[in-house]
Amino acid sequence: MESPKKIAHEIGGVKRDALRFGLNGVKSDIVGSHPLESSYQSGKRSEEEMKRRIIGHTYGSALPLKMDMDRQILSRFQRPAGPIPSSMLGLEAYTGAIDDIGFEDYLNDPRDSETFKPVDFHHGMEVRLGISKGPVAPSFM
């Protein structure tokens, strides 16, 4: 018995779908982040690691593991893709990021921009469920 011929095709298998998300910018692939930004991120990681070590030495090794599990649980809790974005308020309160003032707090929220493309609900859910691949939605035109 001969198997039927199939065309090798994967839904959304292209990393960057030009029809859904527009043309890919080359600059973002070539140029890395700003040196100050990478220094800030590495300092933040080392500070968190130091805090984990101190908590582990003070309260025992089980508490940092419990804190990691709580962080993973809170980072998974999200709204479905749609017009209302997930605020991740529980995770922000748990990590202390709720006290930080970012640019979106004193400037406009990027989602209020005129060039912001709304999220395609169906594609966002396909990506989340693993049916389709690629970014959930483009951020700007």
Polypeptide structure, described:
This is Proteasome maturation factor UMP1. Pfam families: UMP1. Belongs to the POMP/UMP1 family. Keywords: Chaperone. The chain has helices at residues 18-21, 27-30, 35-59, 62-76, 89-95, 103-106, 121-129. It is mainly α. The longest helix is centred in the middle third of the chain and has 25 residues, at 35-59. The chain has seven helices and no strands. The protein starts with 17 loop residues before the first helix and ends in a 12-residue tail after the last helix.
Q: On the 0-100 scale, what is the average pLDDT?
A: 76
Largest sheet: none
Relative helix content: 40-55%
Head-to-tail CA distance between termini: 51 Å
Number of helices: 7
Low-confidence stretches: none
- Oligomer, anyone? single chain
Number of strands: 0
Class computed from helices, strands and strand pairing: mainly alpha
Rg over CA atoms? 21 Å
Amount of beta strand: under 5%
> What form results from the Cα inertia axes?
extended
Structural features:
141 residues, mainly alpha
Short description:
By secondary structure, this protein is an all-alpha fold. The protein has helices spanning 18-21, 27-30, 35-59, 62-76, 89-95, 103-106, 121-129.
